[in-house]
Write a structure and sequence with these properties.
By secondary structure, this protein is mainly β. The protein has helices spanning 2-9, 143-146, 309-314, 390-407; strands at residues 11-12, 34-36, 39-54, 57-64, 73-76, 80-87, 96-98, 122-128, 133-138, 153-158, 168-177, 196-199, 210-213, 217-224, 230-234, 239-244, 247-248, 256-257, 259-262, 266-273, 278-284, 345-348, 351-355, 359-365. The protein has a domain at 2-284: Cupredoxins -  blue copper proteins (Immunoglobulin-like, Sandwich). Strands 11, 12, 14, 16, 17, 18 and 20 form a seven-stranded mixed β-sheet that branches. A hairpin with a 2-residue loop joins strand 2 and strand 3 (39-54). The longest helix is centred in the C-terminal third of the chain and has 18 residues, at 390-407. It is globular, with a radius of gyration of 25 Å. The model is unreliable at 1-16 (pLDDT under 50).
C-alpha cells in the first residue's frame, strides 16, 4: 500500500527534460516513470504473460508488465532511480540489475543480498546510476525456470553527454525456447535442443523491421540471456562494436565487422551509418536459429526416392505429405498442428523468403518522413539479379572458352 501511495503522489517528468534519443525496442514497450523529489520512479510487475511469437502462435510465458521481454527501462547517468517490483507469480522472485554498479544490498540475488520477494509482495530497489551503457534486468531466483520462460528486460543508461549523436537507437533481446509441436508452454528443462529462436520474443515473420533514413547514424543494442551464443549478421553495412555490458569499447579496440557474436549473459552495442538504401536482412548466422519449430526427431530423407509413399500413407493418414526429399524449402508451409509456426516462412516482393526465427529486415530509405514500415524497396532499374534465358546463357558461357582457345592457338 505504501508503494502504491508513493507512486500515485509522484509527478510525471516533463518531456522537455529528456535529453537523449529514446531507444526503440521493436515489439516491446518502454517503461514510463514518474519524478518524486528528483528520483525517477519505475514500477515492474512480475507475472505470467501470453506472448504472440508470430501470427498464428501464442505461448504461455513469464515476464513483466504483461510482456516478455519486460518493458525497457531508460535513465541517464547520474540519475537516482527507485524501482518497485511487485510479485504476481506463484513463487518467490527477485530482480538482479545485470552489469549495474550499485550497493551490495541492491544487487538482487535472493537469499544472498536480500529476502525473497514472495507472491503478493512489493519490494523497492533504489540506487544512483554511476555509469552508462546497455544493461539488463532479470531474476536471480529459480533462474532455470524464470529466465527460460522469458523474465528479462533492457536497462539502458544514457550518458550525460553522447560522444556522437545517434539518430536511431534500437534494442533487441535474443532468446530461445523449446515449445512442443502443437503446444504453447515452453519447456524450462531444455538445456541445448531448442526449436524456436526470437528477437524480442518474436520470430519471423512476426518480427518488426528496423526502419531508418539514409545517412542516419544507427545504434543496435543486443542482449542475450539464453543458453547459446548468437552471431548476428547484418547485410549491406559494415559496423563497429562500440559497447558491452561493461560500458563503451575504447576507440583503439574497435574493429569493423559485419557479424557480432553475442555470448550468453552479455550485451553488445554496434553502430553504423545507414548509407545504402534497400531492404537488408538481419539474422543470427547459426543456420537452425533462422527456422521455426523444427522437429529434431524427423529422419533425414534428403535425396531419398519416396515415389509412391505419399499415396500409400494417405490411405491411412489423409493429407500426408512426404517431406525433405528435395530440400527443406518444400516444407515451408505444409499442414501443421494448431499453434505451430511453419519451419520456414515469410513472403517478399519476389516470392517466399523461406526464413524464420531470428530474422528481420533493416529498411533504409531516402526522404522518409515517418518510421512506419515503408513496404518493399523499389530497386532502381537494372539492379536486381534476374534469370538468364537458356540460349543466351549458353552463348555467354561459350565466349570465355572461345577467347581462351584463340589466345592459346586452339580451334573452336
Amino acid at each position: 500500500m505504501k508503494a502504491t501511495l508513493m507512486l500515485t503522489a509522484a509527478l510525471v517528468l516533463p518531456a522537455a527534460a529528456q535529453t537523449y534519443v529514446p531507444v526503440v525496442t521493436p515489439n516491446v514497450s518502454t517503461l514510463p516513470y514518474k519524478l518524486d523529489h528528483g528520483v525517477k520512479v519505475f514500477h515492474l510487475v512480475a507475472e505470467k504473460v501470453k506472448r504472440e511469437i508470430a501470427p498464428g502462435m501464442v505461448i504461455n510465458a513469464w515476464g513483466y508488465n504483461g510482456q516478455t521481454p519486460g518493458p525497457t527501462i531508460e535513465a541517464v547517468e547520474g540519475d537516482r532511480v527507485r524501482i518497485f517490483v511487485t510479485n504476481h507469480l506463484p513463487e518467490d522472485t527477485s530482480v538482479h540489475w545485470h552489469g549495474v554498479l550499485l550497493p551490495n544490498g541492491m544487487d538482487g540475488v535472493q537469499g544472498l543480498n536480500q529476502p525473497h520477494i514472495k507472491p503478493g509482495e512489493t519490494f523497492a530497489y533504489e540506487f544512483t546510476l554511476r555509469q552508462s551503457g546497455t544493461q539488463m534486468y532479470h531474476p536471480h531466483a529459480d533462474e532455470t525456470l524464470q529466465m527460460a520462460l522469458g523474465m528479462e528486460g533492457f536497462f539502458i543508461i544514457h550518458p550525460r553527454k553522447e560522444r556522437v549523436r545517434i539518430d536511431r537507437d534500437f534494442a533487441i533481446f535474443l532468446h530461445e525456447w523449446d515449445v512442443p509441436i502443437g503446444g504453447s508452454t515452453p519447456n524450462p528443462n531444455t538445456m541445448l535442443d531448442f526449436n524456436l529462436f526470437t528477437f524480442n520474443a518474436r520470430a519471423f515473420p512476426g518480427t518488426a523491421p528496423l526502419v531508418m533514413k539514409k545517412g542516419q547514424r544507427v545504434r543496435v543494442r543486443f542482449a542475450n540471456l539464453s543458453m547459446d551464443s548468437h552471431p548476428i549478421h547484418i547485410h549491406g553495412v559494415h559496423f563497429a562494436e562500440t559497447g558491452t555490458d561493461a560500458g563503451p569499447t575504447p576507440l583503439s579496440a574497435r574493429v569493423r565487422e559485419t557479424t557480432v557474436n553475442v555470448p550468453p549473459g552479455t550485451t553488445r552495442d554496434i553502430e553504423f551509418v545507414a548509407d545504402a538504401p534497400g531492404d537488408w536482412a538481419m539474422h543470427c548466422h547459426k543456420n537452425h536459429h533462422t527456422m521455426n519449430q523444427m522437429d529434431h526427431t524427423v529422419p533425414n530423407l534428403t535425396g531419398v526416392d519416396q515415389s509412391g509413399v505419399e499415396e500409400k500413407v494417405r490411405n491411412l493418414l489423409p493429407g500426408y505429405m512426404a517431406m525433405g526429399q528435395n530440400g527443406m524449402g518444400e516444407m515451408m508451409d505444409m499442414g501443421r498442428p494448431p499453434n505451430t509456426l511453419p519451419m520456414m516462412t515469410g513472403h517478399g516482393q519476389f516470392g517466399s523468403i523461406d526464413m524464420g526465427g531470428m530474422f528481420t529486415v533493416v529498411k533504409v530509405r531516402e526522404g522518409i518522413t515517418t518510421y512506419a514500415d515503408p513496404g518493399p524497396y523499389k530497386n532502381p532499374p537494372g539492379t536486381v539479379a534476374h534469370k538468364v534465358p537458356d540460349d543466351s546463357g549458353k552463348e555467354k558461357r561459350r565466349e570465355p572458352e572461345r577467347e581462351h582457345m584463340r589466345q592459346h592457338g586452339g580451334t573452336d
